[in-house]
């Protein structure tokens, strides 16, 4: 069979009605973070019925006495080919006020599927499942295995994916399904969270001169730190306190955002937490060194500044620490996805950071573990004035592109004697 015929045979088994049906059924199952049990059971049955070797994996909360679960499925190939993973999360965002439809109805109207997880990430994972299903139905035999991993608790720093890796699940490539407007996210920011704790003796409105001279309000100390760090959601200037080389795909990064500040009424200390979205070349150690140098300079200018630093903010096992990722355009995974998008849309794919700019995902975790990963999928958060947003939705046309691209990439990377440039 000619390679083009092989792909068309698989494409003929991808039906928009089945993508819509599966996405709507997934949306109709509430799955808050660490509440994914019901959807895990639902997906387990779907995966097993398709013929995947499927296991249910328990996921433990990193700091609390909670458990959830996630199914891991393997469609085994004939042997001798690479393993391709499809990874995406089943937990959904918080329900923001302002919804005009039931967020768990899975409404389908005028080509749009509405609901929590529609584009983040239930719609994309439904499309990826239908792609694997189409390969099975077509009778096409791949040399390599396909892993389908609808993971739990992504919103807690990729805890489900981290658990999966610790339990030995691995692959040669990963397509991390994330809302990216079907652009190919080959360059992805990382994230380091920083905690600065400022301290001072407690003081009330009656005091001695000696006590007042030793006092510097911890909140006011944080104001000095914040002024030195800079403003939220503004590009950090080159030559400043952070050490980095500007990346052509990430011209506005690195960037910081203040996440939390807290002081008790009578407290002696104040905690400030901010995150830095990093660019390739920046590391945990380079950020730690830069913050330490900044604080040393501030203490030189303000001798009474009393502060300590914790990086990452939640300690050495902080699940929110992410290394940035980068794959060249020539990488087989990038080429396979880009070629699949072009075949599905008739237009060249947008490759780089594009619509994943500023975001990270479980692909960062997988990439850091040695699995080359690209973030790709339907849905664009630029539809909304804020994110998370009410009235989350995704269009079936996007889902079809996602499904066809996933099928193409699976054949290109894992198929019998097929290169990613030789299918069309």
UniProtKB/TrEMBL annotation:
User: Per UniProt, what is one Pfam family of this protein?
Assistant: Peptidase_M20
Keywords per UniProt = Hydrolase
What are this entry's molecular-function GO terms? hydrolase activity
Which first-to-last residue range defines the signal peptide?
none
The answer to whether the entry has keyword Chaperone is no
UniProt xrefs under PANTHER family: ACETYLORNITHINE DEACETYLASE (PTHR43808)
* UniProt-recorded name of the protein: Peptidase M20 dimerisation domain-containing protein
The lineage, from the top, is: Bacteria, Pseudomonadati, Pseudomonadota, Betaproteobacteria, Burkholderiales
């Amino acid at each position: 069979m000619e390679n083009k015929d092989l792909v068309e045979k698989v494409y003929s088994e991808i039906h928009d009605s089945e993508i819509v049906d599966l996405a709507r059924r997934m949306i109709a199952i509430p799955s808050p973070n660490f509440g994914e049990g019901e959807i895990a059971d639902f997906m387990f049955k779907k995966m097993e019925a398709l013929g995947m070797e499927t296991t249910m994996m328990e996921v433990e909360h990193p700091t609390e006495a909670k458990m959830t679960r996630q199914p891991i499925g393997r469609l085994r190939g004939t042997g001798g080919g690479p393993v391709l993973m499809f990874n995406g999360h089943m937990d959904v965002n918080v329900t923001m006020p302002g919804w005009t439809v039931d967020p768990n109805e899975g409404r389908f109207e005028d080509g749009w599927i509405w609901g929590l997880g529609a584009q983040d990430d239930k719609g994309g994972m439904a499309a990826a499942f239908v792609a694997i299903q189409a390969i099975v139905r077509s009778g096409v035999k791949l040399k390599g295995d396909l892993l389908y991993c609808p993971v739990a608790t992504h919103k807690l720093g990729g805890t489900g994916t981290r658990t999966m890796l610790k339990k030995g699940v691995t692959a040669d490539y990963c397509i991390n399904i994330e809302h990216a407007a079907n652009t190919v996210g080959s360059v992805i920011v990382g994230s380091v969270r920083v905690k600065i704790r400022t301290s001072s003796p407690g003081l009330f409105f009656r005091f001695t001169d000696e006590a007042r001279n030793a006092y510097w309000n911890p909140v006011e100390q944080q104001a000095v730190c914040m002024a030195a760090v800079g403003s939220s959601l503004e590009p950090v200037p080159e030559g400043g306190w952070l050490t980095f080389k500007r990346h052509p795909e990430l011209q506005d990064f690195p960037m910081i955002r203040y996440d939390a500040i807290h002081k008790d009424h009578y407290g002696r200390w104040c905690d400030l937490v901010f995150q830095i979205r990093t660019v390739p070349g920046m590391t945990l150690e380079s950020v730690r060194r830069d913050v330490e140098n900044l604080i040393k300079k501030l203490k030189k200018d303000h001798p009474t500044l009393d502060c300590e630093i914790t990086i990452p903010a939640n300690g050495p096992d902080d699940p929110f620490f992410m290394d940035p990722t980068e794959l060249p355009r020539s990488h087989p995974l990038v080429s396979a996805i880009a070629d699949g998008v072009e075949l599905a849309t008739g237009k060249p794919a947008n490759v780089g950071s594009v619509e994943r700019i500023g975001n990270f995902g479980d692909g960062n975790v997988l990439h850091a573990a040695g699995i080359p990963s690209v973030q790709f999928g339907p849905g664009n958060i630029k539809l909304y004035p804020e994110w998370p947003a009410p009235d989350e939705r995704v269009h079936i046309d996007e889902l079809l592109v996602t499904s066809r691209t996933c099928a193409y990439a699976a054949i290109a990377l894992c198929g019998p004697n097929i290169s990613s440039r030789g299918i069309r």
